[in-house]
Design a protein that fits this description.
By secondary structure, the protein is mainly alpha-helical. It has one domain. The chain is built from 1 helix and 2 strands, in the order E-E-H. Strands 1-2 form a two-stranded antiparallel ribbon. The protein is globular.
């Protein structure tokens, strides 16, 4: 869980907490909507350009590290 106003995140006018949760795809298919027009999976070195005011490459890298770790991660709080 990260607080958006801390130095490792871009400046933001409101108090926003970011939570990253590991999920498992169990079925269904993506439906374009008002927030997201497409869905795809990428390797860490294959990421498309990102809206870094929403998520940073460092945050994505942290998620990859947690996913590929062979031991449980302890929840991190800012």
């Amino acid at each position: 869980m990260q607080i958006l106003s801390l130095p490792h995140n871009p400046p933001f006018a409101y108090a926003v907490f970011k939570t990253f949760v590991m999920c498992e795809l169990v079925g269904g298919e993506f439906q374009p909507n008002s927030e997201t027009i497409a869905s795809a999976y990428f390797g860490l070195n294959e990421l498309p350009p990102m809206a870094e005011e929403k998520n940073t490459p460092a945050q994505v890298e942290l998620c990859f590290q947690a996913h590929h770790s062979n031991k449980p991660w302890i929840t991190q709080f800012d």
